Amino acid sequence: MISFFDLSKTELTPFIDKLWRSSSRNVSLYIRGSSLLPIESNLGKPIDIDFLLFTRDDINKIRAIAADISSYAHEASPLAPRLDIKVINCRVESPELLFNTLLVTKTGRLLYGKDLSSSTALFIDKQQEIILFTLLEAESKLNSVIQTSNKEIQNKRVPHLSKAILRIAGLLRLNEGFYTRSPQDCADILYKKYPKIINHVAIILSSFRNPFLTDELLMSYSIVLNEIKQDVKLA
Q1: Residue 10: its H or E element
Q2: How far is Cα 174 from Cα 195, in angstroms, rounded to an integer?
């Protein structure tokens, strides 16, 4: 079945090409996310189109170029989904590189460059390191939301924050060769693994229907993150 990306590829190609040609030291360019799902399984068009660019060039320079390309694409087609371009430094091994390699291995499609797909054995070996990285990323996003005084912006970030926290659970079964990013499947993993915090997981899951940053939701975010963190650190 055709995906939204396949349907939009002609319009996107000039921007994708420009991104790839931004440096001779770029290693790989992937697309991933909901734009690759068959159109029949999408509820309308995606909010954004996710790209991952792995590079050995100066990371700040390439990120600035990527931001400009995303802006140009939006100006050219303001009603189309935004290009969300994440730039990854692959000069040295890091938890960020490991996690994003997992993402493209499991959910990405290579557009240009080297295939970075790795065996499940690598991710099993580095499971704790990857989980701790995603915990820190989720905590950083939570702190950013808390420090934002604008209530409208806070509420707008709730779905993204809820996904980031629930999706950590998708990494908890890597040692079994299983990985998921579905919020419901991740919640089911948390229900089974941490029965004491079932109510807090349910509150986070319900925030997709009611995206409002309440004190109850904030508490649930913190409790779920702390429960996973303590478990992983003791492992």
Answers
A1: helix 4-20
A2: 20
- Identify whether the C-beta of residue 19 lies closer than 8 Å to the C-beta of residue 94: no
Q: What is the pLDDT of residues 219-229, one digit of tens each?
A: 999 999 999 99
pLDDT, mean of residues 197-201? 98
| Antiparallel, parallel or unpaired: β 48-55 and 26-32 | antiparallel
Please state the φ and ψ torsions of residue 128, each to the nearest 5 degrees. Answer: -60, -40
At residue 231, what are phi and psi to the nearest 5 degrees? -65, -45
Q: What is the mean pLDDT of residues 153-161?
A: 95
Q: Write down the residue that tokens 């209530």 correspond to.
A: 151
Distance CA 133, CA 167 (A): 12
Tell me the C-alpha distance between 50 and 109, whole Å.
11
How far is Cα 90 from Cα 96, in angstroms, rounded to an integer?
9
Helix, strand, coil percent values for the chain (each to nearest 5): 65, 15, 25
How far is it, in rounded angstroms, from Cα 166 to Cα 97?
Answer: 21
Q: What is the residue whose two structure tokens read 């709730």?
A: 158
Q: Tell me the pLDDT tens digit for each residue of 31-43.
A: 999 899 888 754 5
